[in-house]
Design a protein that fits this description.
Layout (H helix, E strand, L loop, with lengths): L1 H30 L4 H6 L1 H6 L1 H12 L3 H17 L3 H6 L10 H18 L3 E2 L1 H28 L17 H32 L4 H13 L1 H12 L3 H26 L2 E2 L2 H16 L2 H4 L7 H19 L1
Antiparallel strand pairs: 1-2
Organism: Sulfitobacter porphyrae
Protein name: Calcium/sodium antiporter
Pfam family, one: Na_Ca_ex
Length: 315
Amino acid sequence: MMPWLLSLLGLVILLLAGDALVKGAVNLSLRLGVPALIVSLTIVAFGTSAPELLISIKAVIDNAPGIALGNVVGSNTANILLVLGIPALLATMHTSECHTRKTYNFMIAASVLFIALAFRGVFDWIAGLVLLGGLAYVLADQFGEACNHRNACKGDDAEEPEGADPDMPRWQIAVFLVLGLIGLPLGASLLVDNATIIATAYGVSDTVIGLTLVAVGTSLPELATTVMAALRRQADVALGNVIGSNMFNLLAIIGIASLVGPIDVDPAFLRLDLWVMLGASLLLIPFVYLGRDITRIWGIALSALYALYLVVVLS
């Protein structure tokens, strides 16, 4: 029972530390005069994915590649089927009003690139550089679009990035940074170490633990964000959150982790999990391209598909 409790504790520490790091880094950057636009596109994006990144790096160091890859592949699948499915059960998400085609195309391209590199059998430094090159291209494109949007909206108040507080004192910024920098490695260590113990005790692979326990845990922030967005009828936030998170997971997390050490690809990923991830991504076509809303019926279907996937993985 103790490994389960310690895994849960590690997950809670990760989520809290990631949030603290984002708040501290955003407010420090703005105090130093870094434009809010740059902060939104870089620090917030990296900071909100810090838990997944630290888990993958720790897993590579501990020679548990299944957790490193399962964390990313499982999170991407959960983000679409679970994170979009559950909120749709509560309220219809009017995604027909969203304009996410370009970002969605980037996500599909990142997924195809990731799968192609996986068939090399290992994510080494070469694959890492390719993924990070893709990330740099996407960030440059998004930065250009954001600049054009800001220029088109001259005179409007600039939207502050998530976590910005102009009145936050310096000591509080320092506390947030320290808590984030200490909590992230501590939480990652607790979660990965105890998830590995659980896998050994139950006779399952670290791949299965990565695809289930770790992946669902690290998808909880996206789930909370999407539920609130659905209730507030902010479908663009919900869909954009999922698409952006998935793209960042593939390009940044494995890209950086593979520079720490090689990540061997379990053949099970090539047989099933990568294709489930891609298939789940393609399920978004009706909402992105055909103007369909994510209704409760779709919510039931997506959630049921995720439950079926878990049954197959755990069987």
